[in-house]
Amino acid sequence: MNRDHWERIQNAFHEALSLPSDKRIAYLEQTLGDSPDLRAEAESLLESYETDPSFLEDSPVKMDSVDSTFDSPTRTGTAVGPWTITERIGEGGMGTVWRAERTGDFDQQAAVKIVKRGMDSEHVVARFRAERRILASLDHPDIARLYDGGITEDGLPYFVMEMIEGGTPIDRYCLDRDLPLRDRLIFFTRVCSAVHYAHQNLVVHRDLKPSNILISRAGDVKLLDFGIAKLLDTEDDGDVSPLTRTDMRLLTPEYTSPEQFRGEPVTTAADVYSLGLLLYEMLTGAKGHALTNRSLTDMARVVCDEDPPRPSTRVGAGAGDVRLAGAVPEPRLRGDLDNIVMKAMRKSPDERYASAKALADDIGRFLDYEPITARPQTVRYQFGKFVRRHRFGSVAAALLMVLVIGFGAAMAVQSSRIARQAREIALERDKAQEVATFLQDLFAVAAPTQSRGETVTARELLDRGSARLETELTSDPHLQSGMMQVVGEVYTNLALFPQAESLLTRALTIAQGDWPGAEANEAATLHSLAKLRFTETKPLEADSLFALAVAAAEDVWGRKHLETARYFDDYAKLKSELGELDRADSLHREALAVFEAEYGRQSVETADILSNLSSNLRLLDRLDEAEALEREAYAIRRQEFGEPHTAVAASITNLAWVARARGEYAEAESLARVALAQHRILYPDNHPNLANAMTNLAGILQQNQKWDEAVSIYKECREMVREVYGEESAQYVRHLNNLASLYIRQQQFAEADTTYRALLPLLDRHLGEKHPVTTSVRANYSQVLAGFSDFEGAAGILRGVLAIEIERYGEEHSEVASTMSTLSTYYMEVGDLERALPLAMRALEIRRTILAEGHPDLANSLINTGYAYGTDDDGEQYFHEAVATLVTAYGAEDIRTVRAEISLARYYMKRNQWADAEDILERGVVIADRENTPDNWLNQWIYDCLAETYRAQGNQQRAENFATKVIDG
Amino acid sequence: MADAREEITQLLRNMSGGNKKALDELLALVYRELRAVAHNQLRSERSGHTLGTTALVHEAYIKLVDQNRVEWKSRGHFFAVASMAMRRILVNYAKERKRLKRGGGVEKISLDEGLQVAVDGREDELVALDDALDKLGAIDERAARVVECRFFGGLTIEETGEALDIAPMTVKRSWTFAKTWLKRAMA
C-alpha cells in the first residue's frame, strides 16, 4: 500500500468513525467509491475497530503520568520514626516533603523530607549519622532545625526538620511584593548572617537557592536544608572529581559554583558564590545563569567561564525595555550593587568575599552610603579569567570518556580505567588547558546547534579528535602521546583496528623521543599496541610487544607496581592463548599478589585476575582449583554488579567450561544457556562476545547430542563474525572450524571438507603452525581425511599435531591423550597394530591420571585400547570397562553407550564369536532405530555388522534383510 | 553507574539521526538501569514490601528521565527511545520465555521478576505485535512509533505527542488507526 492510499484510508476511517454507526458504510462508499480496493480496506478496518476497541489498551508498562507520580502512594497516616505523616506539602529536587506530627503529641509539628528512590540509601544514612551531631548543634533563629533522620520502612532516607508555617521563597517574597531595595538588602544580610553562623560551626550549605530560603508568615528568614546536600553527595569529602550528573541531580545547576563543577573541594566560598546569585535574583528577578536546555558541558562552560550580565544591564534598557516584574530599577543597581554582586560571584573562590559576613558588611556599607570594598573587574582579572577558563580539563576529559563508554557494553570493563588514565593525564600535568580546549571543541560538535541536524556519531568525534591530536598538542609530547595512547585503546575496544594502529604507532614514535617522562608513555603505548594485536588475534606479534611492554614497565614502575601487574595479567592471557600455560600461571599469580595487596581479595579488580587465573588452570586440567577460583570471582562480581552483567556472565561461562571439562555436560549446558541469555540482553546483535557465548553453548550442545540446535547456532555465529571481522581474521577461522568439526561429528565429511578447504589457508597466515587453533583445526582435518579413508594422510597430519601438543603441554594432558587416541585409531585402520597399541595404552594411562573415575572420555581410550589389541584376549576387558563407564554416565539406553557396545560386537566378530556379537547387535539395533533415522551412520554400521554376523552363521535370509538396509557408499 | 546519565545524553544526541548502534546501547542502558533499580529495591527490602512490575519499570523511567531533567530538549526524545528500548526488552523476554517453554527443561535462567510479570501470559501477543509493528512501520513509520510509545512505553497521548513532537490530536488519530490495523494484521 502506498502512502497516499494509506492517508486516504486513514482519513476516511476517522471521518466515518465520527458519524453514527449506521451512516458509516454509506460514507465510505461516497468518499472512496472511486476505488473499490480502498473502500474494501477501509470497511474491513472499520469492522475490525468495532469488534474490540480495547485492543492494545492494556500496556504491560503502566504509567499514568511520568513526572508527578514517583512517590505516588500516599504516606498520610503512616509513621516515620516517631513521627506520623499528616499531609503532603510539596516536591523538591530530592524528594517529597510531608507535614508530620510527633506521634501522640499534636502540638509538635515538623516537616519530613523523604528522599526519593534512586539515591544510595545506606550511604545517605551513614553520612547522616556522621554529621547529625554537628547539624543538630546548629542553633540559630534563622536556620530551620534538623530534628532527626533515618530510613523509612520501605528503605528511603528521610530527614525531620522544623516546620516553617506559610513560608515563601525569598525571591518570590521580594518580587511579588515589589519590596523596596533597602528591605531586600536587609533580608539578604540576615541570610548572610545565618550562613556565616553555620560556617563558623563548620557547616557549608552547598545548595543555597531561593527555594531553600523562606520568609515565614511572621516575616522571619528561615534557611532550610543546611548540610543536607553534603549528606546526599555521593562523592567523598575532598575527593577531587569533576561533577557528574549524579551530583547535578542533587544540586541545582543555576546555583552551583564553578569549583563544584570542577570537582574541587567545596568550601564556604561556594556558599558565598550562591549568595551572590541569590542577591542577583532578589534584585533583578532573573537568574544569573540561564542554564535550562543546556548540556552538562555547556553548563560547565557557562558557569566556569562566563560572567552573567551585570545586574543593572539585566534590568536596564539593554534587556529589552521590559522591566522584569518586581525588579529593582536599573539606576539603583548600577555601580556599587553591580560590583558587590559580581564580586560575590567571581569564578575563583579567592577573589570573592572572604566570608558571608564580609559580603553582608559590604551591603551594610552600601546601605550606609560608605565606599564599598568591591571593585570593578580589571584587565588583569579579565586575563586571569581567560587563563582559568581552561582549567576544567578534567571535566572535559571525563566527559570524553563517558562518551566513549557509551560504545558497547564491552567498554564498561575498560571504562573506569581509561577514565582514570584520562584524568591522570589531565590532572597530573599542569597543562590541562590544552586537553580541555581540544576536548571541548570535540564536544562542541556534538551540541545540536552546531551539528545542524546531522548525526554526529561518537565514532566521528573520535576521528576528528584523533586528527587534531596530531596537530594541536605538538608542544607537549607527554600529553600528545598520552592522549593518542588512550584514544588508540578506545579504538581497539571499538574494534577499529586500523585507526588504533595508526594512532598507537604514532604515539610510540613520540614516546620514544627524548623528553622527561617519555619512558612511562612508551611502556603504556607498547602495552596498548600489544593489546591491539591480541584483540586482533595476532598473538605472535602481541607476544613480542608484551615482552617489550613488561620489560619497560618494570624499568619505569618496578615489578610490584599495580601498573606492571596489569601488564603481567594481560601478558599471561596471551601466554595462555599461546599454550604456554605454566608461564601464564606464574604471570597471573604475580599479578594476583599485587592486586590483592592493593585492592584486597574481595574486590572486582582482584576478581578479574582470579577469573583469568582460573581459566588458565582449567586449561592445565587443574579443575578443582579452577572452579574454586571462578566461583570466588563470580560471587564477588555478582555482589558488586548484580545480574545480568558482562563480568558475571563471563564467570558463568567459565564455570560452564569447567563443568564441560569435568564431563558434567548437563550442568555445563544449563550454565551456558544462562550465560547466553545474559549476553543476549547485554550485547547488540552482532557483538563478538555474543558470538562467543553462542559458540560455547553450541559446543556443549554437541556433547549433549543436540546437533541441529548446535549447527544453527554455529551458522549464525559464522555470519556474525564474518560481518564484524571479515573472512581474513582468526575469529572467522575459529568459527569455521567449529562448524567443520560439527560436520565431522555428524560424519558429514563432504561438508566438512569444503569448510576446511576455506579454512586451512587462513591458518598459517594468521596464527602460525604452533597456535592451539591451528593444531586443533589440523587434528580435525585429519578426521576428514580419515572419513575419506585416507588414513595414512590423516596419521601424517596428526603426528605433527601431537609433537606440537606435547611440546606445549607435556604428555600428561587431556589434549595430548585425545590426539594419541585418535592417532592410534588411524594406525589400526591401516592394520599397524604395533604402532596403534602403545599409543592407545599411553592415552588411556594419561586419561586415568588426569580424569576423574567414571569420566566418559575414558571410554574412548578404553575402546581404542581394546581395538588395538586386535583379536588378542586381553582386549575384551577394555570394552567391558568402556561400556560400564558409559552406562554409568549416560545410562544403558543411550546411543553413546550403544556405540561402545557395537565396538565390543566388532571385537567379537573379529574373533568369530558370532553369537556374542549377535546378542549385542540385536539389542543395539533396537535402540538405534528408535533414536536415529536408518540413514544414520551408526545405524548403517549396525546393519552392516548384523548382515555380516548372520551371513557368517549361515542365516542368509536375516543377513539379506539387513544388507538391504545398507545404503551403498 | 554514575555515568549513566551522561551516556544517555550522548546517546540521545547520536540517535537524533536514527543511529542504530546508539539505540542498541540505550536499550542496554535502560535495561541496566532497570536491573539496578530492582537490585537496589531488593537490597533495601524490609518486611515483605515488594515493588511490582509497573512500579519497577516506572521507577527506572523516572530515574532515567529525572537524571536528564536539565536536558529538556532531549526529554521527549528520551521517551521515544526508551519506548523503543522497552519494546525490545519485553519482546526479547517474551521470545526467551517462549523458547524456554518449548524447551520444557528446567533452565536456570534468572529472568528479571518484574519483567517476567509484565510479560507473563502475553508472550504470543507481544511477539505477534512485534512482527505486525514492523510491517506497520514499513507503511507508516510514525504510526509504529506512536504504538511503541503508547503500548511499550506506557505513555499517555500527551506524553507520546511530546516524545514524537507531534500534536496530541495527531497521536490520537494515529493510535486509533494503527491499533485497528494491527488488530486485523494480528488476527
Count of separate DSSP helical elements of chain A: 45
Low-confidence stretches of chain B: 1-5, 38-56, 67-74, 104-115
The overall strand count of chain B is 0
Beta-strand content of chain B: under 5%
Number of domains of chain B: 1
Strand order of the main beta sheet of chain A, please? 1-2-3-4-6-5
Instruction: Please estimate the helix content of chain B.
Output: over 70%
| Oligomer state of the chains in this structure | heterodimer
The backbone outline of chain B, from C-alpha atoms, is: globular
Distance between the termini of chain A: 54 Å
**CATH topology name of the domain at 178-219 and 238-377 in chain A:** Transferase(Phosphotransferase), domain 1
Task: Name the largest protein-protein interface in this structure.
Answer: A-B, 82 and 86 residues
- Which overall shape of chain A is indicated by the principal axes computed on the Cα atoms? elongated
Mean pLDDT of chain A: 78
Instruction: Work out the strand percent of chain A.
Output: 5-15%
Question: Helix/strand/pairing class of chain B, anyone?
Answer: mainly alpha
Runs of chain A in which pLDDT lies below 50 for 5 or more consecutive residues are 62-72, 234-250, 317-322, 377-458
Key structural traits:
heterodimer; A: 969 residues; Phosphorylase Kinase, domain 1; Transferase(Phosphotransferase), domain 1; 6-stranded antiparallel β-sheet; 3-stranded antiparallel β-sheet; B: mainly alpha; disordered N terminus
Write the layout of secondary structure elements.
The complex is a heterodimer of chains A (969) and B (187).
Chain A: H1 3-17, H2 24-32, H3 36-51, E1 79-80, E2 83-92, E3 95-102, E4 105-115, H4 121-137, E5 146-151, E6 157-162, E7 168-169, H5 170-176, H6 181-200, E8 213-215, E9 221-223, H7 228-232, H8 245-250, H9 258-262, H10 268-284, H11 296-305, H12 311-315, H13 330-333, H14 336-344, H15 356-367, H16 379-389, H17 393-405, H18 410-428, H19 432-444, H20 448-451, H21 458-472, H22 477-493, H23 497-511, H24 518-535, H25 539-557, H26 562-577, H27 581-599, H28 604-619, H29 623-641, H30 646-662, H31 665-682, H32 688-703, H33 707-725, H34 730-745, H35 749-766, H36 772-787, H37 791-809, H38 814-829, H39 833-850, H40 857-868, H41 876-890, H42 895-910, H43 914-931, H44 937-952, H45 956-965
Antiparallel strand pairs in A: 1-2, 2-3, 3-4, 4-6, 5-6, 7-8, 8-9
Helix pairs in contact in A: 1-2, 1-3, 2-3, 5-10, 6-10, 6-15, 10-14, 14-15, 17-18, 17-19, 18-19, 18-22, 19-21, 21-22, 22-23, 22-24, 23-24, 24-25, 25-26, 26-27, 26-28, 27-28, 28-29, 28-30, 29-30, 30-31, 31-32, 32-33, 33-34, 34-35, 34-36, 35-36, 36-37, 37-38, 38-39, 38-40, 39-40, 40-41, 40-42, 41-42, ...
Chain B: H1 4-15, H2 20-43, H3 53-67, H4 72-103, H5 113-119, H6 123-139, H7 141-152, H8 157-164, H9 168-186
